[in-house]
Specification:
The chain is α/β, with parallel strands linked by helices and about 325 residues long. The chain folds into two domains: about 140 residues, Medium-chain alcohol dehydrogenases, catalytic domain (Quinone Oxidoreductase, Chain A, domain 1, Alpha-Beta Complex); about 140 residues, 3-Layer(aba) Sandwich (Rossmann fold), CATH 3.40.50.720. It is built from nine helices and 15 strands. The strands form three sheets. Strands 3, 4, 5, 6, 7, 14 and 15 form a seven-stranded mixed beta sheet that branches. The structure holds NADPH dihydro-nicotinamide-adenine-dinucleotide phosphate (NDP). The site of NADPH dihydro-nicotinamide-adenine-dinucleotide phosphate has 31 residues, from helix 1, helix 2 and helix 3.
């Protein structure tokens, strides 16, 4: 028997005990060590959006752990692994349980130097942040191109994007609704902070050419304002919708300034890009600094933490300890 959080319908989540025989189909079984609470998990746990596609569902879109049984030639008992996305926690039981059974092709072996706890302190948010930072780099944005703006900067994706970009030598401006977290953001490497209220209302077609690049996790008017304030040839990566799913923008920045909008998806991202992102995370993150970003909780703390995340009052990330 093992402990798990289970959604029995959209509104009801219970801390329960399950049997190994209850686990879904898959060719690799994993003793889950850690998970984390992503925005999508908070939506699922609080019943704020229909994230679970069927019930009962164990939420949790990511986890790290150790392989306990494998019919997949690429994985062996004792391998340390990490999983992000692939519909886990949505259509296939996820990481808020002490055991999981999944398809081996969804897994990545933990890179050398990263512990299971570190991997989930980074989590899907950090992995997505790295996908965004790598997309900027791969689209030719260098530290010399000019400053980068990161929205939702105190959140999971934003915090780690600020940290990675600063470490890569970019000048980073952190857009945030939490003025009291200015020191935290400067500590992560931001050069300056901006009040998100400046970007929250309807954007003009074109604004000042301030940014060489952007990591946007917010969408809606914020993304539209960022695009309007991006310099000639600049690149905006978009991965989130914390303000909204709409994009009330115009084509002006694209056709008059050659601005590029690059979408970033972590869930079905091809394996090579995932491996590269995790490799970069292992090499570039200062693990000791991660402890400042993540608060550790147990399965019994997930519901409260998810509510705080939905209320937008959280700085950093939650590490869920399942050991
Ligand atoms: P968090 O909740 O940790 O952070 C979101 C941050 O956005 C908040 O901390 C806050 O930062 C800011 N924010 C919240 N509400 C608003 C608002 N109404 N207007 C403007 N800013 C707001 O979430 P994550 O960082 O984990 O995820 C961020 C987004 O990225 C989510 O929409 C998530 O679904 C998406 N995402 C997408 C992925 C993909 O594969 N495409 C993968 C992972 C996440 P502050 O107070 O500093 O302004």
């Amino acid at each position: 028997m093992f402990h798990a959080l289970q959604l029995t319908d959209k509104e009801t989540i219970t801390l329960t005990q399950l049997d190994e025989n209850d686990l879904p189909e898959g060719d690799v079984s994993v003793a889950v060590s850690y998970s984390t609470i992503n925005y999508k998990d908070a939506l699922a746990v609080t019943g704020s959006a229909p994230i679970a596609r069927s019930y009962p569902m164990v939420p949790g879109i990511d986890f790290s752990g150790v392989v306990t049984q494998s019919d997949n030639p690429d994985y062996h008992v004792g391998d340390k692994v990490v999983l992000n996305g692939w519909g886990v926690g949505e259509s296939h039981w996820g990481g808020f349980a002490q055991q999981a059974r999944v398809k081996g092709k969804w897994l990545i072996k933990l890179p050398e130097g990263l512990s299971e706890a570190d991997a989930m302190r980074i989590g899907t948010a950090g992995y997505t942040a790295m996908l965004c930072c790598n997309a900027l780099r791969d689209h030719g944005v260098t530290p010399e191109s000019g400053p980068i703006i990161v929205s939702g900067a105190t959140g999971g994706v934003g915090s780690i994007a600020v940290y990675i970009l600063a470490k890569r030598g970019y000048t980073v401006h952190a857009l945030s609704g939490k003025p009291e977290q200015r020191d935290y953001l400067l500590g992560l490497g931001a050069t300056d902070t901006l009040d998100r209220a400046q970007y929250a209302e309807k954007a003009r077609a074109l604004g000042q050419q301030l940014w060489a690049g952007a990591v946007d996790v917010v969408g809606s008017h914020t993304l539209a304002n960022i695009i309007a304030n991006t310099q000639y040839g600049g690149v905006v990566t978009a991965c989130g919708l914390a303000q909204g799913m709409d994009l009330p923008s115009s084509v002006a920045p694209f056709i008059l300034r050659g601005v590029s909008l690059v979408g970033v998806d972590s869930v079905y991202c091809p394996i090579a890009k995932r491996q590269a992102a995790w490799h970069d995370l292992a090499n570039e993150m200062d693990i000791s600094q991660l402890s400042d970003i993540a608060h550790t909780i147990g399965l019994d703390g997930v519901e409260t933490a998810a509510k705080a995340l939905m209320a937008g009052t959280v700085t950093g990330r939650y590490l869920v300890d399942l050991k």
